[in-house]
Protein backbone atom coordinates (compact mmCIF):
# COMPACT_ATOMS: atom_id res chain seq x y z
CA UNK A 1 0.00 0.00 0.00
CA UNK A 2 1.30 3.43 -0.97
CA UNK A 3 0.63 6.25 1.50
CA UNK A 4 0.62 9.89 0.43
CA UNK A 5 1.24 12.31 3.27
CA UNK A 6 0.41 16.02 3.24
CA UNK A 7 -0.09 18.94 5.60
CA UNK A 8 -0.39 22.67 5.79
CA UNK A 9 1.66 24.82 8.17
CA UNK A 10 -0.47 23.93 11.19
CA UNK A 11 0.02 20.21 10.66
CA UNK A 12 3.62 20.41 9.49
CA UNK A 13 5.32 19.34 12.72
CA UNK A 14 3.02 16.35 13.20
CA UNK A 15 3.43 15.39 9.52
CA UNK A 16 7.19 15.25 9.99
CA UNK A 17 6.74 12.90 12.98
CA UNK A 18 4.22 10.71 11.11
CA UNK A 19 6.50 10.56 8.06
CA UNK A 20 9.50 9.45 10.14
CA UNK A 21 7.36 6.85 11.92
CA UNK A 22 5.98 5.40 8.69
CA UNK A 23 9.40 5.20 7.03
CA UNK A 24 10.94 3.62 10.14
CA UNK A 25 8.20 0.98 10.12
CA UNK A 26 8.68 0.06 6.47
CA UNK A 27 5.66 1.75 4.90
CA UNK A 28 5.86 3.02 1.32
CA UNK A 29 5.23 6.72 1.92
CA UNK A 30 5.51 9.84 -0.23
CA UNK A 31 5.42 13.36 1.19
CA UNK A 32 3.33 15.59 -1.10
CA UNK A 33 4.00 18.74 0.93
CA UNK A 34 4.40 21.15 2.41
CA UNK A 35 8.07 20.48 2.25
CA UNK A 36 8.94 23.33 4.61
CA UNK A 37 7.11 25.23 7.30
CA UNK A 38 5.34 28.11 5.55
CA UNK A 39 2.85 30.03 7.70
CA UNK A 40 1.18 31.41 4.55
CA UNK A 41 0.36 28.10 2.85
CA UNK A 42 -3.19 26.83 2.40
CA UNK A 43 -4.50 23.32 3.05
CA UNK A 44 -6.53 22.78 -0.17
CA UNK A 45 -3.41 22.48 -2.34
CA UNK A 46 -2.00 19.67 -0.20
CA UNK A 47 -5.31 17.83 -0.01
CA UNK A 48 -5.63 18.03 -3.78
CA UNK A 49 -2.05 16.83 -4.32
CA UNK A 50 -2.62 13.77 -2.15
CA UNK A 51 -6.00 12.74 -3.54
CA UNK A 52 -4.88 13.16 -7.14
CA UNK A 53 -2.04 10.77 -6.32
CA UNK A 54 -4.59 8.25 -4.97
CA UNK A 55 -6.87 8.65 -7.99
CA UNK A 56 -3.95 8.17 -10.39
CA UNK A 57 -2.39 5.27 -8.49
CA UNK A 58 -3.30 1.84 -9.85
CA UNK A 59 -1.54 -0.06 -7.07
CA UNK A 60 -3.48 -1.96 -4.42
CA UNK A 61 -5.26 0.25 -1.86
CA UNK A 62 -3.42 3.59 -2.12
CA UNK A 63 -4.21 5.94 0.77
CA UNK A 64 -3.41 9.38 2.14
CA UNK A 65 -2.90 10.93 5.53
CA UNK A 66 -3.62 14.65 5.66
CA UNK A 67 -2.94 16.89 8.63
CA UNK A 68 -4.06 20.42 9.48
CA UNK A 69 -5.11 22.20 12.66
CA UNK A 70 -8.47 20.54 13.15
CA UNK A 71 -8.48 18.02 10.32
CA UNK A 72 -11.78 19.40 9.04
CA UNK A 73 -10.42 21.61 6.26
CA UNK A 74 -8.34 18.81 4.77
CA UNK A 75 -11.33 16.48 4.99
CA UNK A 76 -13.64 18.96 3.24
CA UNK A 77 -11.14 19.51 0.44
CA UNK A 78 -10.38 15.81 -0.05
CA UNK A 79 -14.03 14.75 -0.13
CA UNK A 80 -14.71 16.94 -3.16
CA UNK A 81 -13.14 14.26 -5.36
CA UNK A 82 -15.00 11.20 -6.64
CA UNK A 83 -13.72 7.98 -5.09
CA UNK A 84 -12.28 9.71 -2.04
CA UNK A 85 -13.64 8.86 1.39
CA UNK A 86 -11.85 11.11 3.86
CA UNK A 87 -12.52 11.01 7.60
CA UNK A 88 -11.42 13.22 10.48
CA UNK A 89 -10.28 10.81 13.18
CA UNK A 90 -9.27 11.52 16.78
CA UNK A 91 -9.07 8.03 18.33
CA UNK A 92 -8.27 4.44 17.40
CA UNK A 93 -11.89 3.25 17.67
CA UNK A 94 -13.06 5.75 15.04
CA UNK A 95 -10.06 4.82 12.88
CA UNK A 96 -11.19 1.20 12.98
CA UNK A 97 -14.80 2.03 12.21
CA UNK A 98 -14.08 4.36 9.28
CA UNK A 99 -11.95 1.68 7.64
CA UNK A 100 -14.24 -1.26 8.45
CA UNK A 101 -17.54 0.37 7.51
CA UNK A 102 -16.65 3.18 5.09
CA UNK A 103 -13.46 1.96 3.38
CA UNK A 104 -11.89 5.32 4.22
CA UNK A 105 -8.92 5.97 1.97
CA UNK A 106 -7.91 9.34 3.44
CA UNK A 107 -7.16 9.83 7.12
CA UNK A 108 -7.38 13.44 8.30
CA UNK A 109 -5.68 14.16 11.61
CA UNK A 110 -6.28 17.18 13.86
CA UNK A 111 -2.85 18.48 14.85
CA UNK A 112 -4.26 20.64 17.65
CA UNK A 113 -5.47 17.52 19.42
CA UNK A 114 -2.80 14.96 18.52
CA UNK A 115 0.57 16.65 18.01
CA UNK A 116 1.60 16.28 21.67
CA UNK A 117 0.10 12.80 22.13
CA UNK A 118 2.41 10.40 20.33
CA UNK A 119 0.71 7.25 21.56
CA UNK A 120 -2.67 8.54 20.34
CA UNK A 121 -1.61 9.39 16.79
CA UNK A 122 0.46 6.23 16.46
CA UNK A 123 -2.52 4.16 17.59
CA UNK A 124 -4.80 5.92 15.14
CA UNK A 125 -2.41 5.56 12.21
CA UNK A 126 -1.66 1.88 12.88
CA UNK A 127 -5.32 1.02 13.41
CA UNK A 128 -6.38 2.85 10.25
CA UNK A 129 -3.63 1.29 8.14
CA UNK A 130 -4.25 -2.25 9.40
CA UNK A 131 -8.05 -2.45 9.58
CA UNK A 132 -9.53 -4.17 6.54
CA UNK A 133 -12.70 -3.02 4.84
CA UNK A 134 -15.65 -5.31 5.61
CA UNK A 135 -16.81 -5.23 1.97
CA UNK A 136 -20.41 -5.77 3.06
CA UNK A 137 -23.09 -5.15 0.41
CA UNK A 138 -24.68 -2.32 2.43
CA UNK A 139 -21.31 -0.57 2.78
CA UNK A 140 -20.57 -0.97 -0.93
CA UNK A 141 -24.00 0.43 -1.79
CA UNK A 142 -23.43 3.47 0.43
CA UNK A 143 -19.97 4.13 -0.99
CA UNK A 144 -21.42 3.98 -4.51
CA UNK A 145 -24.07 6.50 -3.47
CA UNK A 146 -21.31 8.83 -2.21
CA UNK A 147 -19.60 8.67 -5.58
CA UNK A 148 -22.87 9.59 -7.30
CA UNK A 149 -22.94 12.80 -5.26
CA UNK A 150 -19.58 14.06 -6.53
Automatic annotation (TrEMBL):
Domain of life assignment: Bacteria
Entry keyword annotation includes Isomerase: yes
Family: Belongs to the LacAB/RpiB family.
Positions of D-ribulose 5-phosphate binding: 8-9, 69-73, 102, 112, 138, 142
Keywords: Isomerase
A Pfam family annotated for this UniProt entry: LacAB_rpiB
GO terms for MF: ribose-5-phosphate isomerase activity
SUPFAM superfamilies the UniProt entry points to: Ribose/Galactose isomerase RpiB/AlsB
Protein name: Ribose 5-phosphate isomerase
UniProt xrefs under NCBIfam families: PRK05571.1 (NF004051), rpiB_lacA_lacB (TIGR00689)
GO annotation (BP), single: D-allose catabolic process
Amino acid sequence: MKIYLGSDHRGFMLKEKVFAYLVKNGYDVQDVGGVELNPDDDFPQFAQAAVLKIIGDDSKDPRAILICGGGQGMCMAANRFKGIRASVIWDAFEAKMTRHDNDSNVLCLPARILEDDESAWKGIVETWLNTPYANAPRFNRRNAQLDELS
